Amino acid sequence: MPATPVLASDAATRSPDSEQIETLHRLVLQSLDDDQAVDTISIPLAGKSSIADYMVIASGRSTRQVASMAAKLAEKVKRETGRSARIEGLPTADWVLIDAGDVIVHLFRPEVRTFYNLERMWSFGDAPAAPAQDAVVVAPAGNA
């Protein structure tokens, strides 16, 4: 079976050193904790996907908090690893993706996170479901 091709951009941002990967993972989790991220989960992807070794999903209480967490995290990754993280979605900050190479981070507003439910899609049975929002009960028609 032929080897899976590795894109030049992937090779430049991924680390073959498991100690560096774990250090980056801890840095991401600590940064999110420092910035009071809500419902942070980490999904191990090593051996399950070639895109990264970890996917971290967290929520912020507002678009301002999501944008701030993303900017601070990208700064910390650059300062600690010397690699620039790629960021998508920062202008609207409903869902911000930070690609730090070995760790991919998704930051959401809670409503957006519930709608997309990435935990379910990527958990491989290892991670809990997305945190439930306050349920709205709708009475059936005619029962008012």
Descriptive terms for the model:
144 residues; alpha+beta; Beta Polymerase, domain 2; 5-stranded mixed β-sheet; 5 helices; 38% helix; globular; disordered N terminus; disordered C terminus
Brief rundown of the structure:
With 144 residues, this protein is an alpha+beta fold.
Compile the SSE list and pairings.
Blueprint: H1 8-13, H2 18-34, E1 38-44, E2 54-59, H3 63-81, E3 86-88, E4 95-99, E5 103-108, H4 110-116, H5 118-122
Parallel strand pairs: 2-5
Antiparallel strand pairs: 1-2, 3-4, 4-5
Q: End-to-end span in angstroms?
A: 63 Å
Structural class: alpha+beta
The largest sheet has its strands arranged as 1-2-5-4-3
* Coarse morphology: globular
By CATH reckoning, the class of the domain at 38-122 would read Alpha Beta
- Level-2 CATH architecture of the domain at 38-122: 2-Layer Sandwich
Largest sheet geometry:
5 strands, mixed
